[in-house]
Amino acid sequence: MIRRVFLVLVGCLLLLAAAVAINTWRHGSRQLHVAAAPPLAMDTAGVADKLAGAIRFRTVSSADDPKLNADEFRKLHAFLEQRFPLVHARLKREFVGDLSLLFTWQGSDPAAKPIALMAHHDVAPIAPGTEARWQVPPFDGVVKDGYVWGRGAWDDKGNLVAQLEAVEMLLAAGFQPRQTVYIVSGADEEVSGQRGAAAIVKLLQERKVRLDFVIDEGLVLTEGVIPGLTAPAALIGVAEKGYVTVQLKVTTAPGHASMPPPPGTTAIVKISAALKRLDDEQFPGELKGVARELFDTLAPEMRGLQRVALSNLWLFGPIVEKQLAKAPSTNAMLRTTTALTIVNAGNKHNVIPGVAEAVLDFRILPGDTRQTVLQHVRDKVGPEVEVSIIGRSTDPTPITSTDTASYRAMERTLRSLFPDTLVAPALYVAASDSQHFVPIADSIYRFSPVRAKPEDLPRLHGTNERISVANLGELVRFYHQLLRNLNVPAP
After folding, report:
1. CA gap 220, 429 in Å, rounded
2. C-alpha span between 17 and 24 (Å, rounded)
3. pLDDT (tens digit, 9 = 90+) per residue, 316-368?
4. In this structure, are strands 233-240 and 422-428 parallel, antiparallel, or unpaired?
5. What is the pLDDT of residue 1?
6. What is d(CA 480, CA 169) in angstroms, rounded to the nearest whole number?
7. The predicted structure's pLDDT at residue 291
8. Crossing angle for the helix pair 304-311 and 2-26, to the nearest 10 degrees
9. How many CA atoms does the CB half-sphere of 254 hold within 13 Å?
10. Are 154 and 52 in contact (CB under 8 A)?
11. pTM given for the model
12. Lowest pLDDT segment from 13-22, 59-68, 72-81, 230-239
């Protein structure tokens, strides 16, 4: 009897192992095989000089003061006009919301849906007290050691200069796009894009414009960022998380610190308990949606146990999810995240405050909404805590399908330029101006081929922001080749 049970167990294990092996083998590569793009002669040093010049204008935007640094923005506009003469002579340029730019490059086929290339030319401020840590002053716009240094080199003047350079080169070669091309550059992306991108969308809506696709900043060409993946990966953001800022408030009777009330009854204790519950009992994580498609796409390119596990999530899903949840970058793909950011209570050492407040930042996974976040918070904190939304908020964007001609054009372009790079859809966990284009665009992609290793990620909005001269040339070539590919039907 025992021998029979043992044989049955062994048989079941062999069948399971066979199923896992067959399923792993069946998960073949999803990467396109395309011919290499033709070489492109380019003055990369000249492009780097243009970006360095653009960095020297201190285009820091403000949510409260639309006119802050307006002179710097206008100087940048004049600089761009000087350095990209064909773009400004042959494309229609409009100023929207005073400081944002909209260029229109008329296509040859009026029936073809237009596209939009996006980048913003405002930049994040320099954190006070960190200026001395920069290897090159952040607004000097210096080319040094093979890099263009300064605020905006990566986010996002590099993309704008690359787009304009690609169009300038195509114009010089007599190229005309089949689809009308809009170049959109907001002047307030860092402070929500209401005066720039949102106003441009409203203008295009009035003109009855419907876009085939939009490509904006977002994810990048990663190297060594995804555990278990040795090849570089071009991650195309096909959805964007929403966000909401929630304020908690507890009101109790104030009093003198010499006569404290019973334990557990002060405003500080109650709000601390509420925050502890929210931190302990966060939204559940699950490998689904865009994250699932990302790892389904990359699984065949991995080796050993990682390939086996990701190719058989029906069996190893819980283990994979547990591992992904350990790293902040991958954990953010799995769930609506909870971040405790501000706590305020009290103003004198011997007074027990009657009011305690806290602020939490939630980044909302597609499938959740601002309302589900509010309900989650209220369920955890209880009736004694007042819950409200403060500031601007938005639900997650819809998920762009990867089964479209525009996604295949992106994929084809990347594989022809970066043949050793894997292309996969992914979730953008931050925010971009492209969110405003949801009402008028069939597809939205958040990507630029900025090369980024783990040590580069802190440079974004941080210290020593830079982009290599060679990589800047790759950005130009990407936009140049993408526009050319859109004129040629896919084989």
Report:
1. 13
2. 10
3. 778 888 888 888 888 999 999 999 999 999 999 999 999 999 999 999 999 99
4. parallel
5. 64
6. 8
7. 94
8. 90
9. 11
10. no
11. 0.93
12. 13-22
165: annotated active-site residue: no
Query: Rounded CA gap, 154 and 460, in Å?
Result: 7
What's the confidence (pLDDT) of residue 23? 64
Amino acid 385: pLDDT? 97
Residue with tokens 């086996």: 308
96-111 pLDDT, tens per residue? 999 999 999 999 999 9
Q: Which one of 189, 293, 456, 465 is the catalytic residue?
A: 189
Residue linked to tokens 């109790």: 252
Tokens of 172: 């010089």
DSSP 363-428: EEPBTB-HHHHHHHHHHHH-TTSEEEEEEEEEPPPPPPPSSSHHHHHHHHHHHHH-TT-EEEEEEE
In 3-state terms the chain splits into helix, strand, coil percentages (rounded to 5) of 40, 25, 35
**CB 79, CB 59: distance < 8 Å:** no
41: which 2 tokens?
């002669």
- Give me the mean pLDDT over the 21-26 stretch: 64
pLDDT tens column, 112-167: 999 999 999 999 999 999 999 999 999 999 999 999 999 999 999 999 999 999 99
Q: Report all structural domains of the chain as residue ranges with CATH numbers, in order of start.
A: 44-240+397-486 (3.40.630.10), 243-394 (3.30.70.360)
**Cα separation of 195 and 68, whole Å?**
13
How many Cβ atoms sit within 10 Å of the Cβ of residue 118? 30
The C-alpha atoms of residue 252 and residue 262 are separated, in whole angstroms, by 12
Any bridge partners for residue 366, and if so which? 368
* 361 assigned to active site: no
The burial class, CB within 10 Å (0-12 / 13-18 / 19+), for 89 is: exposed
Backbone angles phi, psi at 295, to 5 degrees: -75, -25
Give how far Cα 115 sits from Cα of 22, 53, 480, Å: 42, 28, 14
